[in-house]
Write the structure tokens for this entry.
Amino acid sequence: MSDTDGAKQTAVAVVSWLWKNKDWIAARLGELKAWYLRGKGTKKEPGILILGPGGAGKSTLARLLAGEYDYLRDLPGEYEESVSVETYALKDSPRVEVVVPPGQRQRREATWADLHADLAAGKFRGVIFLSAYGYHSFKAEGGYKGHKLYQGDMKQFVKDFCAERRAEELEVLRQLIPHVQASRRKLWMLTLVTKQDLWWDRGTVEKHYRDGEYAAEVHKVLSQKGHQQFRHEYVFASLVISNFVDRNSQVLKKNTEGYDQKVQVESLRHLFETLDAFRQWEAG
């Protein structure tokens, strides 16, 4: 059986699970809706800025927050690179805008400067920084074999690619931190590590983000602003369940065995619980 056939069977299995458990899922998603951030008054409120390298899931998250993603009908589609700043409105609070700039290096230079300035000026209530432990979607011509890191072995390519992407995550975070420090308002920040279905080894992955260089950057803000003005949390989740593939649908890594829709929905529950905790902290 080819990898393409295997990917199709995985999609069919997901649809089958969704259908058999649609009532259970509907109940869980109904609970999630109650945790959307809600604003007060009629004036446009400080927004939420979603940042991170390209291919980590920023647009997917924004669609989820805006209520534009239906888990009973929508399956993962082909990755499309964002070329400009996208904006969404929170489903239950349209006065709160979600802003998503493109994450590719060449596009960050053209679109991020103004957003960094807005962040420092206090125009955002929170920042969601997306990473994926290096499993960033990409669109290299010719598939993974056309990528500059490919040296003849697919497994080694995935290892090298993810390592390079993790370094990129840290670089982008370091560019962000000074603007978070400069923010004039009370600010929260969420580190959302996506694609849990691909790296379901929480000990290794959590240690990578909670310890070492990544955590040190976040601690700089906390040390300067203090707990009353800055709050940071980690969430590890999967926005969709999908194999890691290139633009030719070549499977580079299959999802971790045992990671199913129930685990995914529970990870999203934690995401919305955390957002609601930020809402309460803002009001405190």
The longest strand covers residues 93-100. DSSP finds eight helices and eight strands in the chain. Strands lie at 45-51, 86-90, 93-100, 124-131, 187-193, 230-236, 244-245, 251-253. Confidence is low (pLDDT under 50) at residues 32-42, 75-83.
